[in-house]
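Case study B.
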Amino acid sequence: MSITLICITVCSIFRHTATIALATFAVPENITTNASMTLWVLPLTCSIAVIYKTLKLPEIKLVVFVKETAMLFGSIIVFLAVSALVVLVAAYLFV
Amino acid sequence: MSNTAKADSIPLLLSVALLSWLVPGGGHFLLGERKRSAIIFITIVATFCIGLLVGSIAVVDPVSAKPWYFAQILTSPFVAVLGHLTTAQSRVVYGWPNEIGQIYTSTAGLLNLLCIVNASYLAYVGTSEKTGD
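Model:
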């Protein structure tokens, strides 16, 4: 009797969790045009840096891997920021 | 590499490439690169899931966003199920969530293509070393 009750409870919790998890992937986020939306570039850059270094390094050692990935991540972000600044200055001067 | 060795390596290359496509990082796992495969799997799946979280499953649209869909399906053939769901349920998403979701999911696919090519190359190089070429 108690085992059945536990099974029902576990199944119910699993069902509700699955429903909530699926619902989050069924409704889009509300993203408006503002300066903070540029932060969406950070996770993507992080993914690219991680995958690139995973494939490039001859051996995966935690300290070296984190250091190399952080350096690549920083380089990409700095390059993007400089590019954005150049475009901003060009737009200010010529448009 | 001799013709026989080349012929022997083709099934391995194909299986590594196919497994890499089926499960991100699967090819590296098959080659014994456990750490690499775990990092690849977590990163690519997380990137794809962020894309779905931002734009919902409607960003996987095989009908009106075909070029994006070709990049997205490189993540795994299971993405086709999401495409089928989107089409069957007539789901749509507009604006920034659509843009960001598509960029994330497509980048995940393209990163996985890089991993497929790398895993195939590692399999090829490994076979060459074994055959002494």
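Chain B has a mean pLDDT of 88. The remaining cases will be described in the next quarterly update.
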